[in-house]
Amino acid sequence: MDRIAALRRIEDALAEFETGDTELEECERRVRAAVRTFATEFDGDRSAYRSGSGTIVVATSERKARERVRELTDVEAPTVERID
Questions:
Q1: Are 61 and 84 part of one and the same domain?
Q2: 11 or 2: which leads in pLDDT
Q3: Which of 16, 21, 29, 80 could share a disulfide with 49, CB 3.0–4.6 Å?
């Protein structure tokens, strides 16, 4: 999914929430899904990684992903796995 497609999905979810056609929980789910899909479909040298606690980061390597999770969560030795 490219950036424009992700933004359109987010805009659609927000518009439906504003008109009352969807509840906040569903809106949040759709926005989260759009962002996660966007993050996991990067072209190039970056990939998405998920930590054991559920934090998702984008990095160029598993080592960099662990460093980023550590910065964000203060977990000393986070485990991460690549999201394909």
A1: yes
A2: 11
A3: 80
